[in-house]
Amino acid sequence: MPSEESASDRLRSLPAVHEVLAADELRPALAEHPRALVADTVRQALDEMRVAIRAGKAVDGSPGRVAQNALRLLSARLRERTARAINATGVVVHTGLGRAVLAPHVLEAIQRELCGYCRLQIDLDTGRRGKRGTYVERLLCEITGAEAAFVVNNNAAATLLVLSAFARGREVIISRGQLIEIGGSFRIPEVLSQSGARLVEVGTTNKTHLYDYERAISENTAMIMRVHMSNYRIVGFTESVPLADLVALARRHGLLVVDDLGSGLLLDLAPFGLRDEPVAQESIRTGADIVTFSGDKLLGGPQAGIILGRREAIAELRRHPLARALRICKLTYVALEATLELFLEPEKLFQRLPTLRMLCEDVGEVRRRARRLARRIRQAAPEAEVELVAETSQFGSGALPAQDIPTCAVALGLPGVEAQELAARLRRYRPPVVARIKEGRVLLDARTILPGEEAIVAQAIAWAASPEAGQ
Questions:
Q1: For the chain, domain boundaries
Q2: Stated pTM of the model
Q3: Among 267, 16, 282, which residue's Cα sits nearest to residue 145?
Q4: CA–CA distance from 263 to each of 1, 81, 92, 96 (Å)?
Q5: I want to staple 448 with a disulfide (CB 3.0 to 4.6 A). Which of 3, 6, 87, 370 is the partner?
Q6: Residue 97, phi then psi, degrees to nearest 5
Q7: Fold of the domain spanning 86-98+358-470
Q8: CB atoms within 10 A of CB 329
Q9: How far is the C-alpha of 310 from the C-alpha of 295, rounded, in Å?
Q10: Residue 446 burial by Cβ neighbours in a 10 Å radius (0-12, 13-18, 19+)
Q11: 3 state DSSP class of 463
């Protein structure tokens, strides 16, 4: 009984929430964050202490100690926010880090056009409700040569809408080698099933011939669908059917051809050594009825699902009940419009669009930036072990698979700190620095560290080397 009474006494002696909020330790947090958020972490810290006391553990229940525990919990909670991070992984379009980096021109447009109300869906000539998306669709048609365009919230939504509108209750022919799965377990066969369409597989994993498609056509066939293998390659004894041949076959039988490009490239990157990625304009010129792709990968813009195609087909998609459920918001419209405007000046594109700049930047320039980063690290953290190493970057997000991009990275070590722990400390810094580990060292790939971020990375490493980071 005495121990129970002692525990009860200690529980009663814990400070009230308002007492902890008055502690000096919480003043900076209260100045930066909503009081309700800080108060909630104080309550959480007190709850943790109550559990420890009931378990018979010794607990310092002073307001200052509770405040320190609350700050720890607040820091953990804030790490869950969608917030700025530094990408030192070398993966140019990193799904976990928000995919494409928006261009400064895009951020300026968002600030300028969305600081108040905006003209989203009103006809300024009549003052009546109008049609949204006119400008972005016009840009897409001008850049790609498509007759019409429509935008939904991602490429998965675009695929679902197209299949639901044109193939519900009917058959869709796809090569077995193109039955892809992308991130988040998005699988083409399951999307077809969800849309109400029926999948007809043709050919084999490595070889599909034109006659495979022709033999599969029936009275119930709605379309032939080509799906770009954006996140893998089949090499060796292979064969696939060119889009032009699929279009000719479909025309003879009155079928639609849908070309799902996945990543969405609007210019040829072959001069930069990046091959085998289809260009949307070529699909349109070849005669695909509908072309779909993402907005936040090779396009370098916001998350969106872009649908290009024949005027009558796009008009039918607009009328479909799913179209409203899958439509994009004003923020995406402004960001996508501003991104596409950059493509109207292709001679400036690689300087103005971060994704393409990082993807195509000469390795010599990357190496020079890596040297500057190494110098900053040595100045900020003299104890750090720093070495420049030749490495490879990747595009990421299921595009340009098996195509390594030469790069230069800073190999980093701290005496007495394992690589896993060092990488974890860098992720705990604000803003977090996300790196990769190879052969027992942390690698900081200069290709994906944006200009101006070198100083922050050096500060993060200095903090990671401090006693505070090791607590």
A1: 2-78, 86-98+358-470, 104-352
A2: 0.90
A3: 282
A4: 68, 27, 13, 16
A5: 87
A6: -115, 25
A7: Aspartate Aminotransferase, domain 1 (3.90.1150)
A8: 12
A9: 20
A10: buried
A11: helix
Do residues 360 and 350 lie in contact, with contact meaning Cβ atoms separated by under 8 Å? yes
Domain 86-98+358-470 and domain 104-352, same fold? Reply is: no
> In the beta sheet, which residues pair with residue 399?
396
Note if the bond before 431 is cis, omega within 30 degrees: yes
Burial class of residue 169 in the structure, from the number of CB atoms within 10 Å of its CB (0-12 exposed, 13-18 middle, 19+ buried): exposed
Q: What share of the chain is helix, strand, coil (3-state, %, to 5)?
A: 50, 20, 35
Give the number of other CB atoms < 10 A from CB of residue 442: 28
Pairing state of beta strands 181-182 and 186-187? antiparallel
**Phi, psi of 40, deg, nearest 5:** -65, -40
Tell me the one-letter amino acid at 428: R
Compute the distance between CA of residue 178 and CA of residue 190 in angstroms, rounded to an integer.
13
pLDDT tens for the chain, residues 1 to 471: 445 557 888 898 999 999 999 999 999 999 999 999 999 999 999 999 999 999 989 889 999 999 999 999 998 899 888 899 999 999 999 999 999 999 999 999 999 999 999 999 998 989 999 889 999 999 999 999 999 999 999 999 999 999 999 999 999 999 998 887 766 567 888 888 889 999 999 998 889 999 999 999 999 999 999 998 765 566 667 788 999 999 999 999 999 999 999 888 898 887 777 777 789 999 999 999 999 999 999 999 999 999 999 999 999 999 999 999 999 999 999 999 999 999 999 999 999 999 999 999 999 999 999 999 999 999 999 999 999 999 999 987 666 666 789 999 999 999 999 999 999 999 999 999 999 999 999 999 999 999 999 999 999 999 999 988 876
Among all chains, which residue has been given the structure tokens 């007759």?
147
Using CA atoms in the order 33, 34, 35, 39, what is the torsion angle rounded to 10 degrees?
-80
Cβ–Cβ under 8 Å, residues 16 and 61: no
Q: Pull the structure tokens for residue 158.
A: 């675009």
Do 192 and 140 form a contact (C-beta atoms < 8 A)? no
Whether the Cβ atoms of residue 295 and residue 282 lie closer than 8 Å to each other: no
Task: Fill in the amino acid letter for 235.
Answer: V
Instruction: Classify 104-352 by CATH class.
Output: alpha beta
Q: How far apart, in whole angstroms, are the C-alpha atoms of residue 308 and residue 389?
A: 43
Cβ 150 vs Cβ 318: under 8 Å: yes
In 343-418, where does DSSP find H-type helix? 346-352, 354-360, 363-380
